[in-house]
Design brief:
Strand order of the largest sheet: 3-2-1-4-5-7-6
Radius of gyration: 20 Å
Keywords: Methyltransferase, S-adenosyl-L-methionine, Transferase
Number of helices: 13
GO molecular function: nucleic acid binding; site-specific DNA-methyltransferase (adenine-specific) activity
Bound molecules: S-adenosylmethionine
Order of helices and strands: HHEHEHHHHHHHEEHHEHEE
Catalytic activity: a 2'-deoxyadenosine in DNA + S-adenosyl-L-methionine = an N(6)-methyl-2'-deoxyadenosine in DNA + S-adenosyl-L-homocysteine + H(+)
EC number: 2.1.1.72
Protein name: site-specific DNA-methyltransferase (adenine-specific)
Length: 350
């Protein structure tokens, strides 16, 4: 009986425990296809410069590699800290109770975001838990708590985004009816379950790609491509949870905006004028590593332009096509609409 149990535990697919989100541009749906290409490269260390949801990093960590993540969004950083860098620390029941039961006088969220995304009761819950997270002095436990709170808000929120106020897209999903408190408790469990040790020392970073002075055997680039057809402003989409992760420290809310968002972080990749130079300097910086780049067909630089940039720095450049229909969150994703058919590519430069 006992030995059976061990067998079952060992056969658990680590990646199936990844706490996924509907993060814009997430490679969740194509990670297995990407792996079919990446697995043939020789690498022990892996740098994910634009980690986003961290799905790629978590997958590669599950393959036993030393993973280094980076993203300028704090929500991405805390997820990475909680389940990529962290190999053994979990948030226990006493600490969860401390977060849930310690009274707090804080009212910033209730006052600033009244009637925008959540009910008054939910806002006070967020005020209380966010304040109590500061009582925890372990960086990994704190990262689990912040990530669980962020994912709870994303799950409870129609479409998981904060570009509109009210419940416009309330589709009656179970996740929307479930209380924020229950979402949070379940998410602490989900993040705890996702913690594992792959025998290497992984690391999470939270800086601009252009300021990251670390490299690895294989460097993976998945920047937000400029596209005239779609929005790639991460802060605009996720400002509320990003603010929550940072406790709005150092952020200036633009009070004239209906959504009460703060000013977007500047990224050279999201503007047509600066994207080319940004690619050149990033690829130049990592030219001694193998480089993998995710790319989708309706973006700038074009596929040919990006191939040429990569060829300036790497002697062997291959482009793999991974067909995939994106759901960008607009109304075009209804079945059969060809306008939303984006081809996804993986560039490999060695
Ligand atoms: C396409 S998403 C990455 C998605 C990720 N591969 C996944 O599977 O979830 C691009 C990410 O780049 C981040 N980002 C944009 N500009 C950046 C910059 N200059 N430096 C660091 N991160 C940046 C955004 O916050 C976003 O998370």
């Amino acid at each position: 009986m006992y030995s059976n149990q061990i067998e079952i535990e060992e056969s658990v697919d680590q990646f199936s425990l990844f706490p996924g989100t509907r993060y814009m541009g997430s490679k969740n749906k194509i990670i297995y296809k990407m792996w079919e290409t990446l697995r043939h490269l020789e690498f022990e260390s892996f740098l994910d410069v634009f980690a986003g949801s961290n799905v790629v990093s978590y997958f590669i960590k599950a393959k036993g590699k030393e993973v280094i993540t980076n993203d300028f969004m704090s929500i991405s950083y805390y997820f990475a800290k909680a389940i990529v860098e962290n190999s053994s620390t979990i948030l226990n029941d006493d600490e969860l109770n401390l977060l849930l039961e310690t009274p707090s006088e804080k009212s910033f969220i209730s006052e600033t975001f009244r009637d925008l995304y959540f009910t008054e009761e939910e806002n006070s819950f967020l005020d209380q838990v966010r304040a109590n997270i500061e009582l925890i002095d372990n960086e990994y436990k704190k990262a689990i708590a912040i990530s669980a709170l962020v994912r709870a808000c994303m799950k409870k929120r129609p479409r998981g985004i904060f570009t509109f106020i009210g419940q416009r897209y309330d589709d009656g999903r179970k996740d929307i009816r479930k209380t924020l408190r229950d979402h949070f408790i379940d998410n602490v469990q989900d993040f705890n379950n996702a913690v594992f040790d792959n025998g290497t020392v992984c690391q999470a970073n939270n800086t601009l790609s252009q300021d990251l002075n670390i490299t690895a055997d294989l460097v993976y680039l998945d920047p937000p491509y400029y596209s005239p057809k779609s929005d790639n402003d991460y802060v605009r989409r996720y400002h509320f949870v990003e603010g929550l992760a940072k406790n709005w420290e150092g952020l200036e809310i633009q009070n004239h905006t209906i959504t009460k968002k703060f000013k977007s972080y500047p990224s050279p990749f999201s503007k047509r004028e600066s994207a080319f130079d940004a690619f050149h300097s990033l690829i130049d910086r990592h030219k001694n590593s193998a480089i993998a780049i995710s790319y989708s067909s309706n973006s700038i630089p074009t596929k040919e332009e990006l191939t040429n940039i990569l060829k300036e720095y790497k002697s062997d450049v291959k482009v793999y096509e991974i067909d995939h229909t994106y759901s960008f969150g607009n109304q075009n994703h209804k079945t059969g609409n060809k306008s939303n058919r984006v081809k996804e590519y993986l560039f490999i430069g060695t």
